Input
Amino acid sequence: MKKIGLKDIANHVGVSVALVSYVLNGQAEEKQVGKEIAEKIRKTAEELNYRPNQLAKSLKTNKSNTIGLVVADINYRFSSGITRAIESEAKRSNYTVIFGSSNESKEKFHELVNVLINHQVDGLILVPVENSEPSIKALQKSEIPFVLIDRNFPSILANTILLDNYKAAYDSTVHLIRHGHKRIAFVNYQSKLTNLLERTRGYTAALKEHGIDHHHEWSPLIRSGHVESDMKKAIHDLTAVQKCDAIFFATDRLSIAGLKEIMKQKIRIPEDLSVFSFDESEAFELFSCPVSHARQPLEKMGKIAVTTLLDLINKDKVINQIFLPTEFVPGKSCREP
Output
């Protein structure tokens, strides 16, 4: 089957190849091409099933109109949600997204960044993993445009789109305090990631400012490779030993693991224990008691990440760190005051 080119469209419409090129490259208005002829050219291109030569186009414009995206774990609800949001926003500007998952590995993260750069992407949107600072610093030296989302490193000044993790955790803890809870536990991962550390900081600050003494035993840390066994011990200790009346889980995955263990130990929600999750999960629908949670603004985060990256690609060198609020979604997992 013959590949349709600009000349075929030009001959079909009866105009010059240059005119067709202007229209299909989005320069119709700039080159003062009439609306009727421009529409006829677009319609003919569609009817003839014209497909632009992206390689030739990128050589001419020095742009590939592709964005590289690296998420931490594609099985994570945040990753799939943010990927959809970024793809949708990129499409509005005629950009294609190529993405990969680092699976929380700094080696895989470094490898993916290099693969995407070798694919001549115009810029990168990255969810960095723990200990990936060297890869980010190397990117800065290469001057390849990039934006960090969800996570950051305080030692690296870069364009970053983040949740206000501190405020979200603070407000969520205050919600539990206002519901009459005095012994509130906070279950987090054992991690050096700033977003998780900020959630712990917000939780402890809320307790302190409301006159509640925080006990170290109320904040067990779960190892990512031992979630089931660590969670089993944590739930037992928090309920049977520490007598906590509420548990705040730092992520949706921890919430699911915690809820499973709470059910195994035959603890009633919210009669015996109130539960709050930092983020939502589709799995919450499987539990008889709707879980109160803080919802992340994935669509807004994805839109801002894309527009920020496109500004960088277009040589806007301003560095911004944007903090977005979460939305509180009430359920029935927290007892009424």
